[in-house]
Amino acid sequence: MKKEILTTEKIHEIIGLAWADEVSFDAIKQVVGFTEKQVIAVMRANLKPGSFKVWRARVSGRKAKHEVRLTPKRQNTYQSIFSSNDE
Fold it and tell me: Whole-structure pTM over 0.90, yes or no?
């Protein structure tokens, strides 16, 4: 995989999406093109160690971070969040 040079804005966008409870890793991949592993690497490189540990504890095993595991109601809520941004 080719390494991409990240701008400060893209790093902030990835971090913001990763912290959001209602945004899954699948959605992050659609928006910025980063896989779950890549998001974790960005978070690890750009957060303080304590902040990274808190974030990992929040998302580890969390259903909302994996679109496949979301209930239909949560998927619809998530889809409306991104569809309103497209307008």
Answer: no
